[in-house]
Amino acid sequence: MKWKFKKIAVRLLRLNNTPQEIALGISIGVFIGILPVYGLHTILVVIAAILVRPANKIAIFLGTSISLPPTVPPITWAGYEIGRLVLRGKFEPLSWSVFSNITLHKIYTYYQPLFLGSVILGLICAVIFYFLVFFIVKKINFGDKLGRRIKRKHQKV
């Protein structure tokens, strides 16, 4: 799995996209991945890829990897807690007892702060990932181009 991810990441960096396009794609994917619309992430990725033309399409898809099974519980908890804070704590904190007595009505009740908090968390993470990826890709691409220029100079000599 690690090898496949590395291969995809290298291919992504080798495309003729600017660092801004790759960073935009990752940040959109991160935002979508944090949203609590489980099962609809792929549909949202396709819609985003169509609507946001400058964004790198592979990067959008890779950005949604933030919501892998090990990261879903902390993301969900953080989104819910942020939503509770924004809505002034009208909702009880998440606990195991809440999940042991869960009903469809309770899910609907908990979804409002979860969705609101996840949108806020998604926006924050999208901005952080944009700048993080932008600077990493810029450094890697610049290093790649510099390395190719040095090789060409030595081949001419």
Mean pLDDT: 83
Q: Work out the radius of gyration.
A: 20 Å
How many discrete domains?
1
Approximately how much beta-strand content do the residues carry?
Answer: under 5%
Structural overview:
With 157 residues, the chain is mainly alpha-helical. The chain has one domain. It contains 7 helices and no strands. Helix 2 packs parallel to helix 4 and helix 2 runs antiparallel to helix 7. The longest helix has 53 residues. It is elongated and about 50 Å long. The N and C termini lie far apart (42 Å). The model has no long low-confidence stretch (mean pLDDT 83).
Descriptive labels:
157 residues; mainly alpha; 0% strand
Chart the SSEs and their pairings.
Elements: H1 2-14, H2 19-34, H3 41-51, H4 57-63, H5 72-86, H6 96-100, H7 104-156
Helix pairs in contact: 2-3, 2-4, 2-7, 5-7
